[in-house]
Design brief:
- By secondary structure, the protein is α+β, with helices and mostly antiparallel strands.
- It folds into three domains: about 190 residues, Histidine kinase-like ATPase, C-terminal domain (Heat Shock Protein 90, 2-Layer Sandwich), CATH 3.30.565.10; about 110 residues, Ribosomal Protein S5, domain 2 (2-Layer Sandwich), CATH 3.30.230.10; about 220 residues, formyl-coa transferase, domain 3 (2-Layer Sandwich), CATH 3.30.1540.20.
- The chain contains 17 helices and 23 strands.
- The strands form five sheets. Strands 1, 2, 3, 4, 5, 6, 7, 8 and 9 form a nine-stranded mixed sheet that branches.
- Bound molecules: adenosine-5'-diphosphate (ADP) and magnesium ion.
- Magnesium ion binds next to α2.
C-alpha cells in the first residue's frame, strides 16, 4: 500500500483508543472535567457496568453555547494556550481530547448552560457524527450522557470484563476521587441503586468508610501535615494490623490527579519493611502536592502516568513520612517474623519475598551457608520435639530436623480438608444463633454478588438484605471459632483486589482465604497434643510442604547438613 495521510475519522478512532480504554476511563475523564469546572456537586449514573449508559451531571461553570461545538472537537480546550502552560499544568484536563474521543466511540449527548446564559445548549455526537447544537432549558452546569460505549468498535467491546468488574472499577474510582475532593458532593448510582455518596462537607474520614469499609476506615492513620517539605504529603495509611495480599490497596493523587506510579507504591511498601509479613501490603490513600513545574503529566493520553523532575526526592519524602508516622503510632511487634535467621546473613539467604512459583520453592534454600533442601513428596513420620517462639514446631524425622511454621502448616491442612469436603459436596456449616447483618462498601458488595454462589458452596449461608447489605446465617464449620462478621469480611477484603478471579480458580482461592482466617496464628501456644495432631494432619496432606498461598510450611535440615555444619563430615 502506498503511504497516505490517514483520514480524520481514522486518526480520531486511533486516538480514542488511547483515551478511552473502558467505562471507568470515561467516568474518569468526565469527573475531571466537572472538577475543572469547579463543580460542588457531581452525580454519576451508570447502567450495564457503564457500557449501556454513563451519565455525569455537575453544577460547574458550564460551557458557553458558542463553544459547545468546539468542546467536542479534537485538541480543543479552554485550559491551555501557550507551550509554557504545558509545563506547569494546574487543571486536570489539558489535551482537549476526551469529549472528542468519547464521541468517536459512543453516542454522546452534551447538555450545558454556562453561568451567564439563560438558555442551555444540547449537542449530540453519534459515533463521530457531530449533530447540530439545539437550545434547551437546563440548570447551570453540564450533563454528559454516554450511551452504548464501543458500539462501533467491536474489538474493544470484547476486551471488557464482566459488568460487575467494570462496575467495581467505577465505584472504586469515584470513591477515591471523593476522598481527594472532600468539598465536593459525589453521588454514584449504579443499576438504579445509589452505591455511594459523599457529603461534600470537607471531612474525608467519612468518605474513607466508603472506600475501605467502616471498620478499616476507623483504624486508618492520618499522615501529619508536612508544611516545610519540598513535596507536601497527606492522606491515610493502614496500621500494621491491617494489610492485604496485593499492592492494589494503595492509591495516589498528585495535585488532585489520580495517578498510577509504581515508584510511589514501592516507597510506601518500603516504609512498612520489616513490619508486615512478607507478601502482605498496606492500604494507603496518599495525596501529594508538588509544584506543577516539577511533574510532567503529559506522558500518556489517559494522563494516569506521570514523570517527576526529581523522582528520588519524591520517593524519599513519601517513604520517610509514612515510616515516621507508622513508628510513632504503633511499636514494632515483639516477635518480628521477618527477622528470621536469614537476615543476620549478608548474603540474604532467605528470599525476602515468598511470592515465588512452586518451582522456586522446590529449590534448595540456603540458610546461613547451610543447604537445607526441601525434599519433594510425602512427609516421613515426624516426632514432635517442641514449639519455638510460639510460632514454629521443631520435629525430628528419620532424615533429620524439621522446622514447621504452625500457621502455614495449619492453613495447608484446613485447605485440603475444605477442598475435599467441597468436591464431595458436604461442607459442614454451622447456623448462627442470630443471623448477622453486614454492610459492605460498594466495591465489596459487588464482590459479594459475584461470589455469592461460591461462598454458599463453601459453607457461608448468605443472602442479600437490601443495598450493599447481606445477612449471614451460617459459617463453615472450620470458622466457628472466629467472630462471624470478621470471618466473612476478611474473606471478602482480599478478594476485592482481585480484578479477574478465574472462575475455576475462585473456589480454591476463596477456600485458601477461609483457611488463612481459620488457621492457628503465630503467637499461639500449642499443647503437645495439639502439636502432634497438627503434624499427623500435615502428614496426611497431598502437598504438605507449601501453604495454599505457595509459601513453604517447613524447612528441613538433613542429618548430613547437621554433620557437615558440626564438622563431623567433609
Ligand atoms: P480537556 O478537559 O482536556 O480540555 P475535554 O475534551 O475533556 O478536554 O473537554 C473539552 C472542553 O470542554 C474543556 O476544555 C472545557 O472547556 C469544556 N468542558 C468539558 N466538560 C465540561 C464540564 N463538565 N464543565 C464545563 N466545561 C466543560
Ligand atoms: Mg477533560
Amino acid at each position: 500500500m502506498p503511504i497516505k495521510v490517514l483520514s480524520e475519522e481514522l486518526t480520531l478512532a486511533i486516538a480514542a483508543g488511547e483515551v478511552v480504554e473502558r467505562p471507568a476511563s470515561v467516568v474518569k475523564e468526565l469527573l475531571e472535567n466537572s472538577l475543572d469546572a469547579e463543580a460542588r456537586r457531581i452525580e454519576i449514573v451508570t447502567e450495564g457496568g457503564g457500557r449501556k449508559l454513563i451519565e455525569v451531571a455537575d453544577d460547574g461553570h458550564g460551557i458557553p453555547s458558542a463553544e459547545i461545538p468546539l468542546s467536542v472537537a479534537r485538541f480543543a480546550t479552554s485550559k491551555l494556550s501557550t507551550i509554557q502552560d504545558l509545563f506547569a499544568i494546574e487543571s486536570l484536563g489539558f489535551r482537549g481530547e476526551a469529549l472528542a474521543s468519547i464521541g468517536a466511540v459512543a453516542r454522546l449527548e452534551l447538555i450545558s448552560r454556562s453561568v451567564d446564559e439563560i438558555n442551555g445548549t444540547r449537542l449530540v455526537v453519534d459515533g463521530g457524527q457531530v449533530g447540530e447544537p439545539q437550545p434547551i432549558g437546563t440548570p447551570q452546569g453540564t450533563l454528559v450522557r454516554v450511551r452504548d460505549l464501543f458500539f462501533n468498535v467491536p474489538a474493544r467491546r470484547k476486551f471488557l470484563k464482566k459488568d460487575t468488574t467494570e462496575r467495581r472499577r467505577i465505584s472504586s474510582l469515584v470513591s477515591r476521587y471523593a476522598l481527594a475532593y472532600p468539598d465536593v458532593l459525589f453521588k454514584l448510582t449504579q443499576e438504579g441503586r445509589v452505591g455511594f455518596q459523599s457529603s461534600g462537607s470537607g471531612k474525608s474520614r467519612e468518605t474513607l468508610a466508603a472506600v475501605f469499609g467502616v471498620d478499616t476506615a476507623r483504624q486508618m492513620i492520618a499522615l501529619p501535615a508536612t508544611p516545610d517539605a519540598p513535596v507536601k504529603v497527606g492522606g491515610y495509611i493502614s496500621p500494621l494490623s491491617v494489610h492485604r495480599g496485593s499492592r492494589r490497596g494503595m492509591t495516589f493523587f498528585i495535585n488532585g490527579r489520580y495517578v498510577q506510579d509504581a515508584s510511589l507504591s514501592a516507597a510506601v511498601t518500603q516504609a512498612y519493611h520489616g513490619l508486615l509479613m512478607v507478601g502482605r501490603y498496606p492500604l494507603a490513600v496518599i495525596f501529594l502536592d508538588i509544584p506543577p513545574g516539577d511533574v510532567d503529566v503529559n506522558v500518556h493520553p489517559a494522563k494516569a502516568e506521570i514523570r517527576f523532575r526529581n523522582p528520588d526526592i519524591v520517593f524519599s519524602v513519601v517513604q520517610r513520612v509514612v515510616r515516621a508516622t507508622l513508628l510513632g503510632q504503633s511499636p514494632p511487634p515483639a516477635i518480628d517474623l521477618q527477622r528470621s535467621w536469614g537476615q543476620a546473613d549478608h548474603s540474604r539467604s532467605i528470599s525476602p519475598d515468598w511470592a515465588l512459583s512452586t518451582a522456586d520453592i522446590e529449590k534448595p534454600i540456603t540458610l546461613r551457608g547451610i543447604q537445607p533442601a526441601l525434599p519433594a513428596g510425602d512427609l516421613p513420620l515426624l516426632r514432635v520435639v517442641g514449639q519455638v517462639g510460639a510460632a514454629y514446631l521443631v520435629a525430628e524425622g528419620p532424615d533429620g530436623l524439621y522446622l514447621i511454621d504452625q500457621h502455614a502448616a495449619h492453613e495447608r491442612v484446613l485447605f485440603e480438608a475444605l477442598m475435599q469436603a467441597g468436591s464431595q459436596g458436604k461442607i459442614e456449616s454451622q447456623t448462627l444463633l442470630e443471623p448477622v447483618t453486614i454492610e459492605f462498601t460498594p466495591a465489596q458488595a459487588t464482590v459479594m454478588e459475584e461470589n455469592l454462589e461460591v461462598l454458599n458452596r463453601l459453607g457461608f449461608e448468605i443472602e442479600p438484605f437490601g443495598q450493599r447489605t447481606y445477612r449471614l446465617r451460617s459459617l463453615p464449620d472450620l470458622l466457628t471459632d472466629v467472630e462471624p462478621e470478621q470471618a466473612l469480611r476478611s474473606v471478602v477484603e482480599d478478594f476485592e483486589e482481585d480484578e479477574t478471579p478465574l472462575m475455576s480458580e475462585t473456589e480454591a482461592r476463596l477456600a485458601a482465604r477461609v483457611c488463612k482466617r481459620a488457621a492457628i496464628k503465630a503467637g499461639q501456644v500449642l499443647s503437645l497434643v495439639e502439636q502432634q495432631q497438627l503434624l499427623r494432619d500435615l502428614e496426611e496432606c497431598q502437598s504438605p510442604r507449601t501453604c495454599p498461598h505457595g509459601r513453604p510450611t517447613m524447612i528441613h535440615l538433613s542429618v548430613e547438613t547437621l554433620e557437615r555444619q558440626f564438622g563431623r563430615r567433609g
